[in-house]
Structures are given as structure tokens and as C-alpha cells.
Amino acid sequence: MTSSPWGVELVCLGNICRSPMAHVVLESRLQDAGIDDVVVTSSGTGGWHEGESMDPRAAAALGAAGYDPTRHRARTFSVDTYAETDLMLAMDHSNLADMVEQAPTVAAAGRAVLFRSFDPESGEGDDEVPDPWYGGDEGFQHVLAMVERTVDVLLERLPDLRDRYAR
């Protein structure tokens, strides 16, 4: 492990559904593993939910699975995120493009990638976390399952990721 905190940023559109769900799960799994030198943050490429709690359906899915969703407050992704974070994980191609557009030379270093690039069930044409906003509760359950299995792989690969993605 490195001596200074290593940062992971999870990014979706509004920072009230997908990225906060991944944020809560990753923080919880890191705590369970006794890893205390990884800082997890999340944000949205759109700022209209700044300061809001996560979507109640996302919070309910997390709560039912034993996670604590109560501390989340939405924030907006900015170019400063590149200086504060080692690895930035976008929930979909549109979010990734928005992130890269803000700092193309920094993004070229490869520190901004799709979250599901670590999902063992992802494949060509199925590499995004679907936005559950317009659907029902089952969409949030589906996203949570996707997030949990992806976070499991992130944790397994953490030592290598720290070496590969560092500011």
C-alpha cells in the first residue's frame, strides 16, 4: 500500500443514482477489508442536483442490502477532480466523454475509464451501468448487483490499480 491516500472518483450524470450507489458500496467494502488509505468520492457531470441526497429508490436499494446511504450529497465533476483523484470511473460513455472534454490532456493518461471495464459480466455493447432513473425499483436492484460484482473485482485488483493509476 502507498503512504498517501489513493483516490477513486465515481461519475454519473446527476450523482444521485449510479455513482453514489457505487460510492457507498466501495467505501463499505474497503472498510470491511480494513483498507483505510483509499479515498472514495463521487460526482455528476451535470450540476442540477448539487447538494441533494441520493434518489430515494437508490437509497432504499442500498439500505435493504445493509448499506448506509444517508451521508451522500450530490456534487458536480470538475477539472479539479483530475488533481484530486487517481482513478476516475464513469458509469457510461456519455459521462466519460464529458469528463475527457474537461481535461483532454490529463484524460489521455488513461485515468478516466468506464466503471464496468472491471465487471466480469460486461462485454462489447454491454459496458455501461444503465441509468435506473426512469424505471422502477427493479432497475435499482439491477444496478446494485452490477455495482457489487464490479466493486469486488476492483478490490481484488486494488494493488495493481494503485500501481497503474497514480497521480
Q: Mind explaining what this structure looks like?
A:
With about 170 residues, the chain is an alpha/beta fold. It has one domain: 3-Layer(aba) Sandwich (Rossmann fold). It has 7 helices and 4 strands. Strands 2-1-3-4 form a 4-stranded parallel sheet, with helices on both faces. Helix 1 (about 20-30) links the parallel strand 1 and strand 2 (about 40-45). Helix 2 (about 55-65) packs across helix 6 (about 135-155). The longest helix is centred in the last third of the chain and has 20 residues, at about 135-155. The mean pLDDT is about 95.
Instruction: Report the total helices.
Output: 7
Low-confidence stretches: none
Q: Distance between the terminal alpha carbons, to the nearest Å? A: 15 Å
Q: CATH homologous superfamily - what is it?
A: Response regulator
- Shape category: globular
CATH class: Alpha Beta
If you average the pLDDT, what whole number results?
Answer: 94
CATH topology: Rossmann fold
Kindly report the spatial arrangement of strands forming the biggest sheet: 2-1-3-4
Number of strands: 4
Largest sheet: 4 strands, parallel
Radius of gyration using CA atoms only: 15 Å
Question: Could you state the order of secondary-structure elements as H and E?
Answer: EHEHHEHHEHH
Helix proportion of residues, in percent? 40-55%
CATH architecture: 3-Layer(aba) Sandwich
* Sheet/helix structural class: alpha/beta
Strand content: 5-15%
Number of domains: 1
